[in-house]
Design brief:
Structural class: mainly beta
Radius of gyration: 20 Å
Number of domains: 1
Strand content: 25-35%
Number of helices: 0
Largest sheet: 5 strands, mixed
Oligomer: single chain
Strand order of the largest sheet: 4-2-3-1-5
Distance between the termini: 68 Å
CATH class: Mainly Beta
């Protein structure tokens, strides 16, 4: 009996200056949509419907908390270590509304970002900053890197508290 063996190995692609291949498309690529919680191969585990406990503007970073057995979302805040960023919202929500919180992905609802810069959770609720908070008791949490002036690759890191 004969068996074929498939070996997967990394492939290195060398492109010499002046090579015509690979070519960039001559048309603009469409923007990548935010993760779809119900399909598109993303899986339901990247987002969850959570009750908003306060007004959540589109693009806000959020923290989750237990309100007498009910999971709720509020704007994340680096003022102290009680509201670390765990996700973001792509639509605005009123208090009491069912908000879709995304735990991974690209947050495309921000403005004024510096391309390539690292961003941290801000002491302004729901916002990001390029300057890590530095006051005693503040939470320092890197939350991602800017892909454009309006898009942040959301990748929250472990937190530290300023002493």
């Amino acid at each position: 009996m004969s068996r074929d063996l498939l070996v997967r190995a990394p492939v290195r692609l060398l492109i010499w200056p002046g090579d015509p291949w690979p070519q960039r498309p001559s048309y603009p690529l469409p923007p990548t949509p935010a993760p779809d919680p119900g399909g598109g191969g993303t899986g339901a585990d990247i987002s969850q419907a959570v009750t908003a406990s306060e007004s959540l503007p589109a693009g806000a970073l959020v923290s989750l908390w237990d309100d007498a057995g009910t999971l709720k979302a509020r704007r994340a805040n680096a003022t102290d270590n009680t509201k670390p960023a765990v996700g973001f919202v792509t639509d605005p929500y009123s208090p009491g509304a069912s908000a879709t919180v995304y735990f991974v992905g690209v947050n495309r609802d921000l403005s004024g970002l510096t391309l390539g810069a690292d961003y941290y959770l801000s002491t302004t609720p729901g916002a990001v900053t390029t300057t890590p908070p530095s006051a005693s008791g503040n939470l320092v949490q890197r939350v991602g890197q800017a892909l454009s002036p309006t898009a942040l690759a959301f990748a929250p890191q472990e937190i530290a508290t300023v002493t």
